[in-house]
Write a structure and sequence with these properties.
The complex is a heterotrimer of chains A (about 650), B (about 150) and C (about 290). Chain A is mainly alpha-helical and about 650 residues long. Chain A is about 70% helix and about 0% strand. In chain B, helix 1 links the parallel strand 1 and strand 2. Classes of the chains: A mainly alpha (about 650), B alpha/beta (about 150), C mainly alpha (about 290). Chains A and C meet through helix 19, helix 20, helix 23 and strand 3 of A and strand 1, helix 3, helix 4, helix 5 and helix 11 of C. Chain C: It is a multi-pass membrane protein.
């Protein structure tokens, strides 16, 4: 209990302290210290809570009452703040203030009128939320550390300076925008902790809205018109989800059937009672995790500084959406609504994987692949068996680590080479070996055996084929997964190919990676490896206790499934191979003579140029395949939007009828 | 025994040939002669090749290409010049842009005469080249041993 | 796990390349006969590889050798999993990793020919991957297990139940074996637009690694094909498998090469028409 309140409150206080720092150097120091404290607290919590069932916490009457009022006042204040931001909207964004008003109205209607359900336990801890807390504190924290240096350079560039200077010795007062930036980052972390620990739906909803606010502010951070428009788009889409969430709470207050404001009671209600609110909350989850038809806000969010993309849009915020979906997953088990939810995830997975093949901008590739992977998690959540929940939770873990690494590495690469175009990253292994190695580990972690994502896919196949909602359901999902995996393989490998290509001309000298960025990157690289090597530990420590608890409540069938030791052994062999081969190569490299690449014998300057027609010397150029004539991005997006929109409509209608 | 003799892969380059010798050379691959019986494969890639078959004389256009291709072939390797032009420049010997035979640019091991050279003599040339190839492999092995000692 | 399974797994590591080399040799001989030639000795692929080890190795970048080690390692692991009687899906995943490492090796050399070759190879992987995944899924629906040992001792009717999957697999086998009409990434014959595609800039022992990897791959693919007929026992299943395997040679010699876009379309179409339909209809034919 104390640890939970520490995590939530400390992030908040740390944010204030950081914003109030007198100098840039002191601010950097405070950020590092806070991140360290958060990480320690989360690890402590994990150690205390590992392999144990959930614990629910009751608060004293007086405290509950005060907190209730505080959260309500906070909600209204939040709405007022958002409305104040809305002074900069364009006429065609009229729907945003309307949504804010509708959402706040719904909440107030639920809170002020009618009989309130009794709330016994406003907070709880279970092994799943502990795992989420670990991700938020450690991955999120590392991203904050990376942001110290990144924002320093970013602001220096914005101010027109070429050299940013050292962070630690900087004595000037931090700019207001920088202080606010870090405050919002930590506020966001606090809200994320709130989401994973709150059992009271009203409070959870408040935290939920805080993340919406933070993401809106951070996306619009740069203040350009594009950034502001994208910020409002993110706000609008998240508010649609918010309205839906508020509607669920109204239903739970005034509607027939289930009368509760507690998350665990809602899940315990089962599909017979809890399906309607669960579907409404699922819409909120879909919008937060950027599933089609809401996906475009996450792509727009890529205009934000890289740490923001990494923190909000790859490893933590979007995870809030799938977190709530997985929580509700037992309700969806064996229902049509669940199947439709899975199909939304599946269609998103397939469409965005194909679109990602088209992209040359590294951040957009990452964004699309994020949406795709979240789609995969949503597919699992919709099925709602022990095995799919197992897969979904592991996917969250592996995706958070690997994707954060990739985002930060791309950000650092952009700083180093001045471009985020994949084609410009040619030969990065030779030009910037460290950063390239990190990118490669991240990519391997995203799609290749024996890393975690693949493990998730493996389990998904097995679980989908054992489904039983209607004829052909499991086959449909498995086929979607099979077809979606193929383009995934294509676009990652293509990018890896660019990285490993030997540069045709001599690489320029290299500046070192700044220290804070290096710390974050090295830690995440190590985490990617460790998460994969020690996944059985994460499995028994965090995932199994969670599913077993749900099974003991009779909400899901007992997890019959276990990874055979032989599979684990084979995976370990592969992992060891991936580690030992480069090691052996490094220790005893084979000594072969080097020669220029084959250019039909017309080489002029090594592999870089050749003698072309009329005796002219021409540079060698070859680009990757983007299949832009074969797969039209616009068409794919349209198909995805219409398809997912229709499925979501069906899901809502189906649940209500 | 060296396996070089059992699997000679050739690279064929027409320096400034009139294509007469080239057609004869390609005839060796047809079912009538079928040099694949002896494991001979026309690779079209210097990095895979053991035997470099050049037809035609060398001029300014082809000089660099012949040098590049030769440099990109891994040792041990042999060069077979095919046809009168490749041997000496042939009837183009005195042309202002012709350097002469292939041996003006790279070391040639076997000369196959004829205008155009007949497939039988080309095959014979390759077979002779194989002995040189094997000898070269042996020499290299001995040298390596001496270095090791 | 029984000692029998272990011995089979290790036998693959030792004998896999031998079988694969023989298959490659017979393939070349058959091709020659179809073209009215005599053709090379059956052991020709072995001579080729032993020769390559006698040659020097020229590299564009030393790292290319590392990627090739990865290619060979994962290929062996994939086959080891298969012959151990373990998980078919896992074996497929390892096979995919191996393919990607080969592409990386070619990308690393960064010549235009290897570049296009590996891009096309990736395209082919994208084309055949869904169908190859459907194969274990089909077996899972029939035998309720991804384990090869369970599939081998499955029902004798499984090949009838999985007829569509088998057709799809044979289609993808043509791609996997780099046969015409799908040999777009590295042709077996020189003097074509891609020179040698993926392997253009590999030489000497590097090229030998690729060849040995392909021998392993031959054995693995033969093993996959065998699985369809496995419940009938080796005496019936093996001849059928081998005949089907060599039917690919006929396809190779009677078809011209396709472009990558038609390859992709054709293979996904086949996957949907044969593979997916078969899976969807399975509940009615079991």
């Amino acid at each position: 209990m104390y640890l939970i309140s520490f995590l939530i409150l400390f992030s908040l206080i740390a944010g204030l302290a950081i914003a109030a720092a007198p100098t840039v150097g002191a601010q950097a120091l405070r950020i590092r210290f806070s991140v360290g404290a958060l990480a320690l607290a989360s690890v402590l919590l994990a150690l205390l809570q590992a392999s144990r069932g959930p614990e629910f916490y009751a608060l004293g009457d007086g405290l509950t009452h005060v907190l209730d009022w505080l959260f309500m006042a906070g909600g209204v204040a939040l709405a007022a703040l958002l409305l104040w931001f809305c002074r900069r909207i364009k006429p065609r964004e009229w729907y945003i203030p309307v949504l804010i008003v509708v959402q706040t109205g719904l909440m107030l209607y639920a809170e002020l009128f009618g009989q309130h359900p009794e709330i016994a336990h406003p907070f709880y801890v279970d092994s799943f939320s502990v795992l989420m807390a670990l991700i938020i504190a450690i991955v999120g924290g590392l991203i904050c550390i990376h942001a110290i240096r990144y924002m320093h350079d970013y602001l220096a560039h914005a101010a027109g300076q070429h050299e940013a200077g050292d962070v630690d010795t900087a004595q000037q007062r931090p700019e207001r925008s920088r202080s606010l930036f870090f405050f919002v980052l930590f506020l966001f972390l606090a809200a994320m902790f709130g989401i994973v620990f709150a059992n009271n739906l009203l409070w959870l909803f408040f935290f939920w809205e805080v993340t919406t606010l933070c993401s809106f502010w951070l996306i619009s951070y740069s203040g350009t018109d594009e950034a502001i428009r994208n910020g409002f788009r993110a706000l609008g889409f998240n508010l649609i989800g918010g309205v839906s969430f508020a509607a669920a709470i109204v239903w739970l207050t005034h509607g027939p059937g289930l009368h509760t404001w507690e998350l665990d009671q809602l899940v315990a209600g089962g599909s017979a009672l809890a399906l309607i609110p669960a579907v409404l909350i699922a819409v909120a989850g879909l919008s937060k995790s950027a599933q089609m038809p809401f996906s475009s806000w996450l792509l727009g969010a890529m205009v934000a500084p890289t740490p923001v993309s990494a923190l909000l849009h790859s490893s933590t915020m979007v995870k809030a959406g799938v977190f709530i979906l997985i929580k509700l997953s037992p309700v969806f088990h064996d229902t049509f609504a669940g199947l439709l939810l899975s199909l939304i995830g599946g269609l998103t997975f397939l469409a965005t994987s194909l679109i990602a093949v088209n992209q040359r901008n590294a951040k957009l590739v990452l964004a699309y692949s994020t949406i795709a992977n979240l789609g995969l998690i949503v597919m699992c959540a919709g099925v709602g068996t022990a095995a799919t929940m197992w897969a979904a939770i592991l996917l969250i873990l592996f995706h958070a680590v690997a994707k954060a690494l990739l985002f930060l590495a791309v950000g650092t690469t952009e700083h180093l080479i001045g471009s985020r175009d994949i084609e410009d990253m040619e030969g990065l292994v030779y030009r910037r070996p460290t950063i390239a190695a990190m990118l490669l580990v991240g990519m391997l972690g995203m799609f290749l055996a024996p890393f975690g994502m693949l493990l998730g896919k493996y389990t998904c196949f097995q679980a989908f084929l054992s489904m039983d909602v209607m004829w052909g359901d499991g086959v449909m999902l498995a086929v979607i997964l099979a077809f979606g995996s193929a383009p995934t393989l294509f676009f990652w490998s293509k990018w890896m190919g660019k990285l490993v290509a030997v540069p045709r001309s001599a690489p320029p000298g290299s500046a070192p990676i700044p220290r804070d960025e290096a710390i974050a990157l090295f830690s995440l690289t190590a985490l990617t490896y460790i998460a994969c090597a020690l996944f059985p530990l994460a499995d028994t420590g965090f995932v199994l206790p969670y599913t077993q608890h749900l099974a003991s409540l009779g909400l899901i069938a007992a997890p019959s499934f276990a990874m055979p030791w032989e599979t684990i052994m084979l995976m370990s062999i592969m992992l060891a191979g991936l580690f030992l081969m480069p090691l052996a190569f490094w220790l005893r490299p084979p000594r072969y003579a080097e020669v220029s690449a084959y250019l039909s014998g017309a080489n002029v300057d090594g592999s870089a140029s050749y003698r072309g027609a009329m005796g002219a010397e021409r540079m060698v150029e070859s680009r990757g395949y983007y299949l832009s004539g074969f797969l039209q991005e616009a068409t794919m997006v349209r198909v995805g939007l219409i398809g997912c929109g229709a499925l979501m409509f069906l899901m809502l209608i189906g649940a209500l009828l | 025994m060296s396996f070089l003799k059992k699997s000679p892969w050739v690279l064929h380059y027409a320096a400034t040939s009139c294509n007469g010798c080239d057609i004869e050379l390609l005839a060796c691959l047809t079912p009538l002669y079928d040099v694949e019986r002896f494991g001979i494969v026309n690779t079209g890639n210097p990095k895979h090749a053991d035997i470099f078959l050049v037809t035609g004389s060398v001029n300014e256009e082809s000089r660099k290409v012949v040098e590049n291709l030769y440099a990109q072939m891994p040792d041990p390797k042999v060069v077979v010049a095919i046809g009168a032009c490749a041997l000496s420049g042939g009837i183009f010997k005195d042309a202002y842009n012709v350097y002469g035979g292939i041996d003006k640019v790279i070391p040639v091991d076997v000369y196959v005469p004829g205008c155009a050279a007949r497939p039988e003599s080309i095959i014979d040339g390759v077979v002779q080249a194989l002995d040189i190839l094997e000898q070269r492999a042996k020499d290299r092995k001995r040298q390596r041993k001496m270095v090791a000692v | 796990m029984k000692p029998y399974a272990w011995s089979l797994g290790f036998a693959f590591i030792l004998l896999g390349p031998v079988v694969g080399a023989l298959l490659a040799g017979i393939d070349r001989r058959l091709t020659a006969r179809m073209q009215a030639r005599k053709g090379p000795p059956i052991l020709q692929p072995v001579y080729d590889v032993l020769k390559l080890f006698e040659k020097d190795t020229l590299v564009v970048t030393p790292l290319q050798t590392l990627y090739l080690w990865g290619f060979l390692f994962f290929m062996v692991v994939s086959g080891f999993i298969l012959f151990l009687g373990s998980d078919l899906l896992l074996s497929l995943f390892a096979l995919t990793v191996s393919g990607i490492f080969l592409c990386l090796a070619a990308y690393a050399t960064n010549s235009p020919f290897s570049n296009i070759g590996s891009s096309r190879e990736l395209m082919l992987m994208m084309a055949y991957e869904p169908m190859l995944i459907l194969v274990p899924l089909g077996f899972f629906l029939v035998t309720d297990s991804f384990r090869v040992s369970d599939i081998v001792s499955g029902s004798p009717w499984q090949v009838i139940q999985l007829a569509g999957i088998l057709i799809g697999f044979l289609f993808m086998l043509t791609i996997k074996l780099r046969k015409s009409p799908f040999d777009l990434s590295s042709s077996h014959h020189g003097h074509q637009e891609l020179v040698k595609g993926i392997t253009t800039d590999l030489s000497g022992s590097d090229l030998a690694i690729v060849e040995i990897g392909h021998w392993y791959e031959n054995s693995i693919l033969l093993g996959w094909l065998y699985l369809f007929f496995a419940p009938w026992g080796p005496w019936i299943a093996l001849p059928i498998t081998v005949v089907l395997f060599f039917a690919e040679v006929l396809v190779d010699n009677t078809n011209a090469r396709l472009t990558w876009s038609s390859t992709l379309k054709a293979s996904w179409l086949v996957t949907v028409v044969f593979g997916v339909t078969n899976l969807a209809l399975l509940p009615f034919i079991s």
